[in-house]
Amino acid sequence: MKRAHLFAAVCSVYWLADSVHAGLMDRSPVTVRCLINSISRFILLVSCQTQTPMPIQKDYRSMAMVLKHLKTVLDEIVDYEVSSDEILYKECEELDLAVNEAREFMENCYPKMSKICV
Questions:
Q1: Dihedral (C-alpha) 59, 65, 67, 73: value to the nearest 10 degrees?
Q2: Cβ(97)–Cβ(31) under 8 Å?
Q3: Kindly report the CA angle at 68 between 42 and 107, in degrees rounded to 5?
Q4: In whole angstroms, how far apart are CA 56 and each of 74, 81, 90, 109?
Q5: Over the Cα atoms of the chain, what is R_g?
Q6: How many angstroms separate the first and last alpha carbons of the chain?
Q7: How far apart are CA 18 and CA 20, in angstroms?
Q8: Are 70 and 13 in contact (CB under 8 A)?
Q9: What is the pLDDT of residues 19-58, one digit of tens each?
């Protein structure tokens, strides 16, 4: 995954977090739960890295830190059934895809590690 994709994913995380704090969340708890699951899997994979860090791994760790904060907010949204709008629903789906792409990229780059952690 290129740095541009990572940057776009991180920007989406910030936009989503701002939208959530603004009280926009309402629509599909299923999509939010899928995103939470994807974030959890990505964070687990990043946290299991034991090899010498490469430059791109630093970006993934930064992304994981941001996603941890977003996951906390998303957990509360699901718990309290906060409402969302259609735009936010779409952003959750897109962010879910970006997080899954990043995780799959890491699994392909580090196949031994991904078998242990996932």
A1: -160
A2: no
A3: 10
A4: 26, 36, 27, 11
A5: 14
A6: 19
A7: 5
A8: yes
A9: 554 444 444 567 888 999 999 999 998 888 766 566 777 7
Q: Which residue has the tokens 């789906």?
A: 93
Question: How far is residue 117's CA from residue 102's CA, in Å, rounded to a whole number?
Answer: 15
DSSP three-state, residue 1: coil
Q: Where are the beta strands (DSSP E) in the chain?
A: none
pLDDT averaged over the chain? Answer: 74
CA distances from 62 to 47, 52, 86, 103 (A): 11, 16, 28, 14
Return d(Cα 83, Cα 25) in angstroms, integer. Answer: 4
Q: Is 92 exposed, middle or buried (0-12, 13-18, 19+ CB in 10 A)?
A: buried
What distance in Å separates the CA atoms of residue 42 and residue 2, rounded to the nearest whole number?
17
